[in-house]
Amino acid sequence: MWIYIIATIVVIGILVFVHELGHFWAARRMGVRVEIFSIGFGPKILSFVRGDTEYRISSIPFGGYVKLYGEHPDILPSIIEKEKAFAFKKTWQKALIVLAGPLANFLFAFLAFWLIFTLIGKTYTPPKIGEILPSSPAEIAGLQVGDHILEIDGKKIKSFEELLMDLRQRDTSAPIFLKIKRGEEILDIWVTPQMVEGTNLFGKKTRIPMLGIKASPERLQERLNPLSAFILAGERVYDFTALTFLAIFKLFTGELPFSTLGGPITIGKFAGESAKMGLMAFFTFMALLSINLAVINILPLPMLDGGHLVIFAIEALKGSPLPLKTQELLFKIGLILIIGLTVVVFYNDIIRLLSGWKLP
Predict the structure, then answer these.
(1) Which residue of the set 20, 151, 184, 197 is catalytic?
(2) Is residue 228 part of a domain?
(3) Last residue of a domain, one of 159, 190, 221
(4) Of all residues in the chain, what percent are helix, strand and coil, respectively (each to 5)?
(5) Which of 180, 239, 171 is nearest to 210 (CA)?
(6) Could you say which of 307, 321, 338, 339 has the lowest number of CB atoms within 10 Å?
(7) Buried b / exposed e across 19-33, counting CB within 10 Å, b at 16+?
(8) Is there a domain that residue 227 lies in?
(9) DSSP string spanning 72-121?
(10) 256 with 348, same domain?
(11) Phi, psi angle pair for 157, to nearest 5°
(12) CATH code at 192?
C-alpha cells in the first residue's frame, strides 16, 4: 500500500512543480513579481521567503499554484508598482506566462521520453506468433507458431503492438493480407478475421477483428542514439497529445462515457503499479500524465490556462480588457465546471473501490 501512496505523492508533486515552475519562470522573465509559489493547496506546512517570493509546501497535495502580484482584477486600484504587476503587462506577455505552465508539462514529457529512449532504449514485442487459438481464422489460414509477421496489408510492422493497433482501428471482417517469414521462406497469406466483442482505444465496447493469435513472450530492446531518441520522443509526445484531444472530443460527443475518467485514486493505482514495474514504466507513466495535465489546462474553459488565453485573445481583438463583471462571471462558470468534473472523477473512483477494485 505504501508504494501506492508514495508513488502518487511523487508523481503529482513533480508534475505540479513542473507546471507551476513554468508559470513562475515566465512571470519572472516578464518582470512580474511572484508573491507565492506553492506545491499543494490549503494551510502551509513548510515555507521560506527568498527575494519577493514565499515558497510553500501546503497540506493538500493534489495541485499547486503561483500567486502573481496584480493578478486579480479586484485589487487593481491598490497596486503601486505597476511595472511588476501581471495585470499591467502587455497581452502577449500575459499569454506567455499562462501558456508556460502547459508548455513546461509538454517539455517534461518530451525529456522523459528522450532520456528513456537514450539511456534504456525502446522496448517492444516482436511480431512473432507465440500461440494460435484452435479453429481460429489464423489456424484456418495456415499460420503457424513461430511465424514472423513482416507486413499487414502492405504496411511494414516491427512490433506486435503495431499489429494490435492496426486491428483495433478496423471495423470490418474484410480479408487481411499478411506477409510472413517462416524459417527462410517469405510467404503471402490471406486471413479473414472474425468479428468479436472488444474495446476500442478508448475502452468503449465495440466489435473488432480477431485473428486468434498471441504474441511470443520474447521482448526486444532497441538502443537509440540521442538524435533518433530525440525524434522518437517528439513523435510520442505528438501522438499522445493527439490521442488525448481525441479522447476529450469523444467525451463531449458521448462516444466515450464519463465513467472512464479517474481521480486521485485511479492515478494512485497506476502510479503504484508503474513504480513496481521499474523506473522506465514509472517515468513513462509520469510523461503520459504530464501530457494529460498540459492538454486539460489548455482547454478553452474559464479558470483553466486555456480560458485565460481565450480572454487575452478577446482583449487583443477589442483593444481593451474585458469588464470585471464579465471576467467574474466567466470564472464563476469555470469554477462550477471544475467542481462538477471533480465530483465526477471522485464518484468514479468510489464506484471502482466499491465494485472490488482494491489496492494491494
Answers:
(1) 20
(2) no
(3) 221
(4) 55, 20, 25
(5) 171
(6) 339
(7) bbbbbbbbbeebebb
(8) no
(9) SGGGGGG-S-GGG-GGGS-HHHHHHHHHHHHHHHHHHHHHHHHHIIIII-
(10) yes
(11) -130, 150
(12) 2.30.42.10
Supply the mean pLDDT for the chain. 85
The conformational region for residue 42 under phi > 0 = left, psi -120 to 50 = alpha, else beta, is: left
- 110 plus 250 within the same structural domain: yes
As a three-state string, the secondary structure of 234-255 is HHHHHHHHHHHHHHHHHHHHCC
Residue 328 annotated among the catalytic residues of the structure: no
Per-residue pLDDT reduced to its tens digit, 141-180: 999 999 999 999 999 998 988 888 888 777 778 899 999 9
Residues 74 and 153 in one domain: no
**359 inside domain:** no
Q: Work out the pLDDT band at 95, boundaries 50, 70, 90.
A: very high
How many residues appear in the chain? 360
**Total number of domains constituting the chain:** 2
Q: Looking at the domain assignment, is residue 230 inside a domain? A: no
Question: What residue type is assigned to position 306 of the chain?
Answer: G
Q: What does the alpha-carbon distance between residue 345 and residue 34 come to, in Å, rounded to a whole number?
A: 32
- CA distances 211 to 135, 188, 222, 250, Å, are 10, 16, 27, 28
pTM: 0.81
Q: Which of 102, 43, 60, 8 is nearest to 349 (CA)?
A: 8
Torsional class of 152: left (φ above 0), alpha (ψ -120 to 50), beta (otherwise): beta
Domain that holds residue 208: 124-221
